[in-house]
Write a structure and sequence with these properties.
By secondary structure, the chain is an alpha/beta fold. The chain is built from nine helices and twelve strands. The longest helix has 16 residues. The relative contact order is 0.17. The structure holds glutamic acid.
């Protein structure tokens, strides 16, 4: 893929800006994912930074055949140009295992034998009550050899400054509980895998949907335990249907159309002062204008945007 012509500019930490878009190949690219792709791409290019494409295919059972190829083709048809070769999570299992070993060595993890049903009966709010923590071993009731691996969470609050949503704090112990990093069916979880991915790809800026903001403190906690730097985060509003359904396969979101009006509509939803589509001669012309005028601070600070789609 083509690289930007100009020299990369440094972010405040003195590193080259590196952003990314990381779709899961569980269906076509819909308008909600287009917003995340556009916001991360435009912000990277507006900083003369790099922008990478990652396919989050760790959970092979959820992968819809050919959807990664469809997503990649749709992005190409919309004029996105990424740097470097595409990163596939499924090729990094050894890296996730290494990270898990590091956490095991730090004695932060423990096997958990509880079924969902058992957790439900033991916890009124659905938060894992720490049944299998080694210090509670007398209570451990599991008999099967198959187990998940959980990580202990700290008692103190985790806080970060989101570039769109502002100050965000979560009490991991009360709001999340010790969480799973390796599933009983032998799959590394989203939380652990993407923390390793961002580190391996030297990602400095993460722009993604608002539905993932409550995962961010878990990811920051894992970064801290693994000795990785924490990127800068920005969470864009979630695109929902007028019935408040997330634009995804569940709400039968249609594949995005690969044309200028779609791009202009997406840029407007992201609050950018973009011209009508007949102003642009080509997709390249649109993108160059968007990079020139892009301002992250114009992206609306709200939880959801309703999209008639
Ligand atoms: N693969 C995730 C998804 O499609 C997004 C991961 C992320 O941006 O952190 O929902």
């Amino acid at each position: 893929m083509k690289k930007p012509n100009s020299q990369p500019k440094n972010n405040t930490a003195g590193q080259t800006y590196r952003g990314r878009f990381a779709p899961s190949p569980s269906g076509e690219l819909h308008f909600g994912s287009l917003l995340a792709a556009m916001a991360s791409y435009a912000d990277a290019r507006a900083h003369n930074g790099q922008w990478l494409l990652r396919i989050d295919d760790i959970d092979q059972a959820r992968v819809v055949p050919d959807s990664a190829e469809h997503i990649i083709r749709t992005l190409e048809q919309l004029g996105f140009e990424w740097d470097e070769s595409i990163y596939y999570q499924s090729r990094h299992i050894r890296d996730y295992r290494q990270a898990l070993n590091t956490l095991n060595e730090k004695k932060l993890t423990y096997p958990c034998f509880c079924s969902r049903k058992q957790i439900k009966t033991r916890s009124s709010n659905g938060i894992y009550p720490g049944t299998c923590r080694p210090d509670n071993q007398a209570e451990q009731t599991g008999t099967d050899k198959e187990c998940a691996i959980r990580i202990r969470v700290p008692g103190h609050p985790l806080n970060f400054m989101d570039q769109i949503q502002g100050d965000y704090t979560q009490q991991l112990a009360q709001e999340v509980g010790d969480f799973i990093i390796y599933r009983r069916d032998k799959v590394f979880t989203y939380q652990l895998s993407i923390v390793v991915d961002e580190y391996l790809s030297n990602i400095t800026h993460i722009i993604r949907g608002r539905d993932l903001i409550d995962s961010t403190p878990r990811q920051i906690y894992l970064q801290q335990q693994l000795g990785y730097p924490t990127p800068i985060y920005a969470h864009i509003p979630l695109a929902v249907t007028p019935q408040q359904l997330k634009l995804s396969k569940l709400s039968r979101a249609r594949k995005v159309r690969c044309d200028l009006p779609t791009l202009v509509q997406a840029a407007r939803f992201l609050g950018q002062d973009i011209a009508p589509d007949n102003h642009y001669q080509s997709l390249q012309d649109f993108w160059q204008h968007l990079f020139d005028i892009w301002q992250l601070k114009r992206v609306p600070k709200m939880e959801k945007i309703e999209i008639m789609y």
